[in-house]
Amino acid sequence: MNAAAGGDTLRALSRAVCCAVALVTSAPAAAEVPAPQTLHAAQTPQPAPDFELVDLDGALHRLSDYRGKVVVLNFWATWCPPCRYEMPSMQRGWDRVKDEDIVFLGVNVGEDTDTVFTFLADYPVEFPLLFDEKAAVIEAYPVTGLPTTYIIDPAGRITHRAVGSREWDDAGLLAELRALRRAP
User: Fold this and answer.
1) Cβ atoms of 95 and 62 closer than 8 Å
2) CB neighbours of residue 96 within 10 Å
3) What mean pLDDT comes out for the span 7-22?
4) Exposed (0-12), middle (13-18) or buried (19+): which is 7, by Cβ within 10 Å?
5) What is the mean pLDDT of residues 142-152?
6) For a disulfide at 94, which of 42, 72, 104, 124, Cβ 3.0-4.6 Å?
7) 56-115 pLDDT, tens per residue?
8) Nearest to 153 by CA among 48, 74, 44
9) CA dihedral 30, 34, 40, 41 (to 10 degrees)
10) Residue 173's Cα: distance from chain center in Å?
11) Are 62 and 50 in contact (CB under 8 A)?
């Protein structure tokens, strides 16, 4: 075997190992007990930075337009395995609360509409997906990794944060969101 063929084989093997590791580490084990679904409360609720972003249809969304509602503001990307993992549960959660003054907004970071449109073939969602192609909005929020989700109360204050994926249709998480509708 010549050196070029050996290098190609090594690269292919390396890619296969990386893919296998990614699949094993991003998928929950069958016997694994689900972790409690928690939100981390802010010590002192702070005003959520306002923004304007467009959705897949080009419609403009301002965070301030949702004042009076609880907002689940999720920063995500199509290349992020935990983001892909949680997206179906976000849709199920949205289905359960969309008529209760609770809004889910997915903010895609750094990708274009074609990339997200292709993603939606495998992960269909109906809640608004917004585009932060230049990463201007994510810079206004202290995001340390994807996915990161902020919960914003009806007064427009960040009250909770979740770093990493969650099961957004979990009864306990939905109860926390519903409780925020009545918060002062």
Assistant:
1) no
2) 16
3) 33
4) exposed
5) 95
6) 104
7) 999 999 999 999 999 999 999 999 999 999 999 999 999 999 999 999 999 999 999 999
8) 48
9) 150
10) 15
11) yes
pLDDT at position 184 is 64
Count of C-beta atoms within a 10 Å radius of residue 158: 20
Confidence of residue 17 (pLDDT cuts 50, 70, 90): very low
Angle at 117 between CA 107 and CA 52, to 5 degrees: 30
CB atoms within 10 A of CB 71: 23
User: Judging by DSSP bridges, how do beta strands 40-47 and 157-163 pair with one another?
Assistant: antiparallel
- CATH H-level superfamily of 40-180: Glutaredoxin (3.40.30.10)
* Residue-range domain boundaries for the chain: 1-33, 40-180
